[in-house]
Amino acid sequence: xxxTLSREGxxxxxxxxxxxxxxxxxMKFAVLELPPWVFRVACVYIGAAGLFAIxxxxxxxxxxxxxxxxxxxIAGFLNVTIWHVSTAYGLQHVEAGxxxxxxxxxxxxxxxxxxxxxxxxxxxxxAAALAFGGAGLLLLAWPAFAGLIDRPIGLALMLAxxxxxxxxxxxxxxxxxxxxxxxxxxxxxxxxxxxxxAGLIWFDLSGHLWLAQGLTLQGWLGFxxxxxxxxxxxxxxWFRALDIMPAPVAALGLLAVPVVGVxxxxxxxxxxxxxxxxxxxxxxxxxxxxxxxxxxxxxxx
Length: 301
Prior knowledge:
- Helix 4 (about 95-105) packs antiparallel against helix 14.
- The chain has 16 helices and no strands.
- By secondary structure, the protein is an all-alpha fold.
- The protein has one domain (about 1-300).
- It has helices spanning about 1-30, 35-55, 70-90, 95-105, 105-115, 125-140, 145-150, 150-175, 180-190, 195-205, 215-225, 230-245, 245-250, 255-270, 275-290, 295-300.
- The longest helix has 30 residues, at about 1-30.
């Protein structure tokens, strides 16, 4: 059983790295042409509708268990509201690849919060994985460090996204909603999207609700991808991984996302991909190996 779960977790994290990584340049294309609130509300509710449709097709029970609505709302605020508002505005101030790097300091925050609030073990191997991962992210971010300091708003927004998601990850793991992952994810998107609707009405009601206004093919493609694959599959896959793996291990497994984000941004948006990035990727690969390699007792079983 453990072997099956480990294999499933590996494939979940691999597909998350690819699909979430490519999402960063896609979001960059979209937010350059769409108001952030319009973009985020559309993405969140397309994702929620897709997940509810999957749950209906699989005949899963989507009813919220008694006493769990408040917990789902809190998780939705941490995992959805903070993340989507912060990244949508942050991408207006920071390059897509570098934004992914800042956002994916999230594993470090999860390791800290998990040790504090979940009693998760923080052994030497996990500490080494965190050290290699942190070094890799620092190397990737180094060429743009001066620019990030000059744009503190973008830096602050992306750090808010990282810590908000980390808090939501730990809270979700602790809450144990006792409902199918597809259903709980759909509810988190639905409830977490409510403040986004309020923001849309407050900030973008006048003249911005028509999505097609001035949208180029590149904008449509970015929006179409960001609103479907990451919002439906990636949200389900992340919460499924979190369901079957310790929170810090699942989070450390996401260290590959910014690598894909930087590489795909260099390819799609022309952002520079320097030689220093290769050393960073090597460090991150070591971190992933340390974080995801099953313990000897499992592999021998």
